[in-house]
Specification:
The complex is a heterodimer of chains A (about 325) and B (about 300). Chain A is mainly alpha-helical and about 325 residues long. Chain A is about 65% helix and about 0% strand. Chain A has a domain of about 170 residues: MetI-like (MetI-like fold). The radius of gyration of chain A is 27 Å and the shape is elongated. The two termini of chain A are about 45 Å apart. The N terminus of chain A is likely disordered. Chain B contains 13 helices and no strands. In chain B, helix 1 packs across helix 4, helix 5 packs antiparallel against helix 10 and helix 10 runs parallel beside helix 11. Classes of the chains: A mainly alpha (about 325), B mainly alpha (about 300). At the A-B interface, helix 7, helix 8, helix 11, helix 12 and helix 13 of A face helix 1, helix 6, helix 7, helix 10 and helix 11 of B.
């Protein structure tokens, strides 16, 4: 220390009494409270609202911030689709079929991004399709997450034959491209929204199960869990109160990547006619329709594809950021 | 040796499960008779087919029968073309390989140098461009990229043929037809592997032995090639093997859009028409490919990493 003027309260206290312990959290004052000014910087950071810390970190990363903004925008579009969309997404107009975007010489100002083979407004359909995309994505990630996390927790905590069987199943899942299995199952059970959600969840549970299992194995050996076991806490209590909270970071990271994957699968399965029934507007269905008329209007496939790409990109980038933020390898 | 046997056993388990899955699909979830004779066939006709296909036997007997035949490569005849499933699959596999092998080579040839360059020129414009392109390449769905490629290069510009596999009009016509599907197929693994190469090189470059190499004054290209890249290749090889799943899924998409008569398109059509023997055989074939390639990746560790070799 170059100067002997104490800078902080902690230093002042240490300067006054060198025998005082350095540990700021040690109960050296029997009656006094520890005020924030006595606690070093790092510890204050931990005490702060974790949401605020996350928001601050998010703000520091441009890519993640833009991604979060894009996803918020998408949620808004989905929620207020009826108000925002300029046209009814199902309204056909045979005179206005296959129009290019408005900035094109042959375009029409009423249809900003042009029209499809039945003369429906592409922009309005993209906006309305975001509802189905987000709904299917969220539902399948939640379903796959619940199944995967439950199995992963049980396998990691109890081990034994349950663990062995589960790991072979995840092996098997990894051996097959999930697109192949998804198409196959959809072809057998038939297309529909609920069916699609189940199929995508089926493609995802293994990721959660693997990661949560390894977290559970790690956490099980930690002192506080061993302590809880020694105190006679029930297995349910240990799993839910002690192990599950330690898996939340990895779960969030996987959820973000899973959402990207779910949106991709929904689009792909719908594109090949084995996802959402073609009557419902989704980006995949729009691309399938655009494929039939691409010789007449090559603009038709452009915008739904951009919508898929940007959404998948945004969730991927958010997942990357979450991985850096939580500093967890998944 | 023990390790190798263990891995082979694990692979066999995966293949066994795949066959069982194929059986379940054929005989439990889907009803092969109804799929063949149609929903409004008479009960008599259904019964006759059931007997003809051996479906009136107990399920265990059918399972054992299916498995013993499957192990010998006999998956029966395709419902649609009445061809032997195995020879049909192998024929289509070779056509898929015409796209898949050049695509994987292209992905490797691009991703290794770009990934390394992106890592050693970290935070320069080269790195940014490579990262952004890789991110987009990973996010853009292949079926969309395929359509856009057709729209731009075949429809609007007219430079490329839009689809099909043409073999009887000379070598260059053939190459022109396979160029776009190969490139689109290569895109996703290329993007993924570039990101992987970049991050592994970045990890390796901070290791002590790279610092030592710098400290003793080695030329930069020697440091990069002998010390950084060779070590980064070890995890990269496994990841390349794991990309096989991506390439198979990609083949289904790309071959369907470009009408390339390969395994992927056969799969897609068989799934749609519920041509179950082909699907069951195909599942087994995919499992075998996956297991063999993963085994090869494990073995390649010994070539790349002397620590594994000497164990």
């Amino acid at each position: 220390m170059a100067t002997d003027i104490p800078r902080s309260d902690t230093e002042k206290r240490n300067a006054q009494d060198p025998r005082q312990p350095m540990d700021p959290l040690a109960p050296e004052q029997p009656t006094g409270q520890i005020t924030d000014s006595e606690v070093p910087e790092q510890i204050i950071a931990v005490r702060r609202n974790p949401w605020k810390v996350a928001l601050k970190e998010l703000y520091a990363s441009k890519a993640a911030l833009i991604s979060a903004g894009f996803i918020l925008l998408l949620i808004m579009l989905a929620l207020f689709a009826d108000v925002i969309a300029p046209h009814d997404p199902q309204a056909m107009s045979l005179i206005d079929r296959m129009l290019p975007p408005a900035w094109n010489a042959e375009g029409d100002m009423r249809y900003l991004l042009g029209t499809d083979g039945q003369g429906r407004d592409i922009l309005s359909r993209i906006i309305h399709a975001s509802q189905m995309t987000l709904m299917v994505g969220l539902a399948s990630v939640v379903l796959g997450g619940i199944v995967g996390v439950t199995l992963g927790l049980l396998a990691g905590y109890f081990g034994g034959w349950l663990d062995a069987i589960l790991m072979r199943f995840t092996d098997l899942q990894l051996a097959f491209p999930s697109l192949l299995l998804g198409l196959l199952v959809m072809a057998i059970i038939g297309t529909g929204v609920l069916e699609l959600v189940c199929v995508i969840a089926l493609a995802q549970w293994a990721f959660y199960a693997r990661v949560v299992r390894s977290e559970a194995i790690k956490t099980r050996e930690l002192e506080f869990v061993q302590g809880a076991i020694a105190l006679g806490a029930s297995n349910t209590r240990i799993l839910l109160q002690h192990i599950l909270p330690n898996c939340v970071a990895s779960m969030l990271i996987i959820a973000s990547f899973s959402l990207a994957m779910a949106i991709y699968y929904e689009a792909a399965l719908s594109f090949f006619g084995l996802g959402i029934p073609p009557a419902i507007p989704t980006w995949g269905n729009m691309l399938a329709g655009a494929r039939d008329i691409m010789l007449a209007n090559f603009w038709a496939p452009v915008f739904p594809g951009i919508a898929i790409t940007l959404t998948v990109l945004a969730f991927n980038l958010l997942g990357d950021w979450a991985r850096d933020f939580f500093d967890v390898r998944v | 040796m023990y390790y190798l046997l263990n891995r082979i056993a694990q692979g066999l388990v995966v293949i066994f499960f795949a066959l069982t899955l194929g059986f379940l699909l054929v005989f439990v979830i889907g009803d092969p008779v109804l799929m063949r004779v149609g929903e409004d066939a008479s009960q008599e006709m259904i019964d006759r087919y059931r007997q003809m296909m051996g479906l009136d036997r107990p399920i265990i007997v059918q399972y054992v029968d299916f498995m013993t035949r499957a192990v010998q490569g006999d998956f029966g005849l395709s419902y649609r073309s009445q061809q032997d499933v195995l020879s049909l699959l192998l024929e289509r596999l070779s056509r898929s390989a015409e796209l898949a092998i050049p695509a994987i080579i292209l992905a490797l040839v691009v991703s290794i140098p770009v990934g390394v360059l992106s890592a050693i020129k970290r935070n320069t414009w080269i790195d940014y461009v490579a990262r952004v392109l890789a991110l987009i390449g990973q996010a853009a769905p292949q079926f969309w990229v395929a359509i856009m490629a057709i729209v731009i290069f075949a429809v609007a510009l007219g430079w490329m043929p839009s689809s099909g596999r043409v073999t009887d009009q000379g070598f260059w016509t053939y190459v022109a037809h396979m160029a776009m599907p190969t490139f689109v197929l290569a895109l996703t693994p290329m993007a993924y592997l570039t990101r992987m190469m970049r991050s592994t090189v970045l990890e390796v470059i901070n290791e002590d032995y790279v610092r030592t190499a710098r400290a003793k004054g080695l030329a930069e290209h020697r440091i990069i090639y002998y010390h950084a890249v060779r070590n980064a290749l070890v995890p990269y090889v496994t990841l390349t093997a794991l990309q096989v799943g991506n390439v198979i899924a990609g083949s289904m998409v790309v071959e369907s859009v470009f009408s390339w008569p390969g395994l992927g398109r056969l799969f897609m059509n068989s799934i749609r028409q519920l041509d179950i023997p082909v699907v069951a055989g195909g599942l087994a074939l995919v499992a075998v490919i996956y297991v063999v390639l993963n085994l090869l990746a494990d073995l390649s560790y010994t070539l790349l990493d002397p620590r594994v070799r000497n164990k």
